[in-house]
């Protein structure tokens, strides 16, 4: 018996710790530390719903405790029958009306917020050149990476979503293979990406909260999509409006051949990268941000600004050694991804040159 009690004490301790730690989170990842208008409204709805549920639980517990204490069976009250209240119209009205009021208190702001989040009419407005007046990002999910296209700017990139702060950013989302779900916990979401339809919504990134998070937020796939679902991450780099305009200008200035390498080793890597055939990379990866290439031909992440990315493959620390590890055997880090292993196709010197070239792909010097 004592041993059994010890085990339950241990379980209780872990349960309390789990409850306490569930409220912890970093500002770049936690939905409990909102960093934008959408996230704040969703957070307030969560607080409202939890408050209502806690209030209901407290009332029920109090009534339960009163009942078992006041009407408990004792020798003095052994034959006492409490007053029967079945069919009491007042009580029936109370326990019918109060839940309806609580549901309305929760439903009205929830429905209002839902319609507000879904209001994307502004993204359909075009300028005289037929480009969106607002900042629109076409998100395309793939096994297991993300593509971000800016149709109004004529550029496309992957894995790192770059956005300005303090303005609405509109998103069109779809999938190229299976169902995924786009989610930036600290800023808002989440919303499915489907093969057969396009979903739309908007987010706004708060500049002050972005600074607290180091101007980088974490994005996740929130829909089970395969063996590397948990590793299908992306990063969101936030900038001021002026910095974003400069980034877009720098991206558009990159030519069809990509960023020019500056060292002899990087030049060797460029030659390897652009080699057609099983040793090369250009057959799948683009090194130009130009979005004129059809989506069907964009079968792998765009690497135009790879040297400025936050992570290798969305998960590994961004350094040359991890790039070489990824090139050699990507399946060891993201099972089920479509990139082939090059450990038997390239020697160490070639892989080193290729990694050097990729680290030099920077549009903002």
Give a brief rundown of this model.
This protein is of the alpha+beta class and 365 residues long. It folds into 2 domains: 26-65 and 86-238, Immunoglobulin-like; 264-359, Cupredoxins -  blue copper proteins (Immunoglobulin-like), CATH 2.60.40.420.
Outline the structure in words.
The mean pLDDT is 89. This protein starts with a helix and ends in a 6-residue tail after the last helix. Helix 2 packs antiparallel against helix 3 (89-117) and helix 6 packs across helix 8. The strands form three sheets. It has a five-stranded mixed sheet. It has two domains: 26-65 and 86-238, Immunoglobulin-like (Sandwich); 264-359, Cupredoxins -  blue copper proteins (Immunoglobulin-like, Sandwich). A hairpin with a 2-residue loop joins strand 1 (136-142) and strand 2 (145-150). It is built from eight helices and twelve strands. The chain has helices at 2-21, 37-70, 89-117, 207-212, 241-252, 264-273, 320-328, 348-359; strands spanning 136-142, 145-150, 155-158, 160-164, 168-175, 180-184, 188-193, 199-204, 216-221, 234-239, 311-312, 316-317. The protein is an alpha+beta fold and 365 residues long.
């Amino acid at each position: 018996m004592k041993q059994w009690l010890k085990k339950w004490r241990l379980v209780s301790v872990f349960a309390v710790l789990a409850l306490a730690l569930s409220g912890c989170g970093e500002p770049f990842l936690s939905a409990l530390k909102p960093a934008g208008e959408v996230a704040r409204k969703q957070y307030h709805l969560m607080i409202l719903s939890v408050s209502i549920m806690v209030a209901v639980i407290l009332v029920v517990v109090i009534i339960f405790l009163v009942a078992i204490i006041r009407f408990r069976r004792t020798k003095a009250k052994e034959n006492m029958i409490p007053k029967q209240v079945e069919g009491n119209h007042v009580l029936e009205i109370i326990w019918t009306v109060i839940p309806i009021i609580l549901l309305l208190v929760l439903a009205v702001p929830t429905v209002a917020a839902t319609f507000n989040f879904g209001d994307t009419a502004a993204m359909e407005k075009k300028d005289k050149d037929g480009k969106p007046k607002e900042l629109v990002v076409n998100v395309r999910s793939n096994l297991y990476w993300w593509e971000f296209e800016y149709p109004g700017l004529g550029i496309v990139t992957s894995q790192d979503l770059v956005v300005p702060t303090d303005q609405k950013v509109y998103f069109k989302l779809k999938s190229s293979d299976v169902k995924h779900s786009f989610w930036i916990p600290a800023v808002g979401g989440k919303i499915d990406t489907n093969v057969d339809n396009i979903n739309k919504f908007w987010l706004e990134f708060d500049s002050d909260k972005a600074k607290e998070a180091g101007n980088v937020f974490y994005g996740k796939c929130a829909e089970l999509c395969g063996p590397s679902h948990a590793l299908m991450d992306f990063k969101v780099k936030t900038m001021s409006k002026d910095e974003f305009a400069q980034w877009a200008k720098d991206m558009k200035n990159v030519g069809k051949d990509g960023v020019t390498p500056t060292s002899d080793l990087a030049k060797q890597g460029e030659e390897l990268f652009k080699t057609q055939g099983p040793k090369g990379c250009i057959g799948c990866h683009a090194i130009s941000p130009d979005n004129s290439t059809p989506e069907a031909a964009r079968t792998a992440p765009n690497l135009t600004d790879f040297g400025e990315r936050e992570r290798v493959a969305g998960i590994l620390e961004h350094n040359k050694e991890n790039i070489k590890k990824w090139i050699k055997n990507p399946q060891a880090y993201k099972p089920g991804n479509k990139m082939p292993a090059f450990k038997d196709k390239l020697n160490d010197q070639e892989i080193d040159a290729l990694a050097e070239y990729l680290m030099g792909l920077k549009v903002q010097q």
